[in-house]
Amino acid sequence: MLWSIMSKPLDLNQLAQNIKQWGLELGFQQVGITDTDLRASEPALQAWLDKQYHGEMAWMARHGMMRARPHELLPGTLRVISVRMNYLPANAAFASTLKDPTLGYVSRYALGRDYHKLLRSRLKKLGEQIQQYCGSLNFRPFVDSAPILERPLAEKAGLGWTGKHSLILNREAGSFFFLGELLIDLPLPVDQPVEEGCGKCVACMTICPTGAIVEPYTVDARRCISYLTIELEGAIPEAFRPLIGNRIYGCDDCQLICPWNRYSQLTDEAGFSPRKALHNPDLLELFSWSEAQFLKVTEGSAIRRIGHLRWLRNVAVALGNAPWSNAVITALESRKGEHPLLDEHIEWAIAQQIEKRNACIIEVQLPKKQRLVRVIEKGLVRDA
């Protein structure tokens, strides 16, 4: 590693400032620098794994404590450059989708282009720019794709503090942003963490539809709607199906209720703009998609990773939670026999529809969802 240019000592303080400016020019909203010491995070990570809170995400346990040791991913790593990029689109329309059970709710981070490739590409450019400036540099970009504890790193780098929902919160930007990391072998000056701002607030814990935030800063993924609709490969436990409502890919409730998200910032990235077919989509339309249609609509989207089968599984659950109608039952019946996993959820959904019909119930409104919609509509959080 060369720490000089043309035989002159490299000014690391100036370089750190340059890196932050280059990061802003590449479209990141904030850039921080920290060391690789995450030993303080290891006990909580081990306890979380010991309690099986990672569910079927075997890769979480497989990599174990490596997540807290960035230097093992890239030998020689001395610093981690942590970045954040806003993803909230201008027309997110949280409330209107959540309160209409005939529509499918897609977590707002997934409405546009897959963020992994976009952020990784920008981080690679940042690394190359540093490399060109220094003359030599070993670096490696990460975006939610390697065994690394990105949130503790972001917290140490001063990008925000960890909220009780376990996400990073920022006083000027809330939590609707992506994180990324660039591992480098330069001893740059590090930034300082910011003071936490949650206080006694437990809004995220009380609003969670499934009670997944089992204690402050701890999420039991097995109960989390994001896990159930994205990571879980098999059947969604029956007890959670009514609580999922119309959320067909992910969940934003713990962010939407957070008072800090009244300060959330809209994205400047055109790639994060909602795709028409995924923005406030009709559930019956979604359930009619063939695999070819699904693949076409989700090309370049984070949603594609769950595949057509799990997509239909999720939509079937949402249809079971939708207002009773013959059209819903007919649609559900039409896909019977395609796969045992789908059949299980179709049968459940039909039973829910019949129960509502027999009880003359048009729609079931869950109290937590009603409260969340009221909070959004009152403007207590930003409804982009």
TrEMBL record:
It catalyses: epoxyqueuosine(34) in tRNA + AH2 = queuosine(34) in tRNA + A + H2O. Residues 186-218 form the 4Fe-4S ferredoxin-type domain. The keyword Iron-sulfur applies. Keywords: 4Fe-4S, Cobalamin, Cobalt, Cytoplasm, Iron, Iron-sulfur, Metal-binding, Oxidoreductase, Queuosine biosynthesis, tRNA processing. GO terms for cellular component: cytoplasm. Its main location: cytoplasm. Pfam families: Fer4_16, QueG_DUF1730. It comes from the Bacteria. Cob(II)alamin binds at R67, D144, T162, I168, L179, S226, C251, D252. Gene3D superfamilies: 3.30.70.20. [4Fe-4S] cluster 1 binds at C198, C201, C204, C258. Pathway: tRNA modification; tRNA-queuosine biosynthesis. GO terms for molecular function: 4 iron, 4 sulfur cluster binding; cobalamin binding; epoxyqueuosine reductase activity; metal ion binding. Its EC number is 1.17.99.6. Its cofactor is cob(II)alamin; [4Fe-4S] cluster. Binds 2 [4Fe-4S] clusters per monomer. [4Fe-4S] cluster 2 binds at C208, C224, C251, C254. One of its GO terms (biological process) is tRNA queuosine(34) biosynthetic process. Monomer. NCBIfam families: tRNA epoxyqueuosine(34) reductase QueG. HAMAP family: QueG (MF_00916). Belongs to the QueG family. This is Epoxyqueuosine reductase.
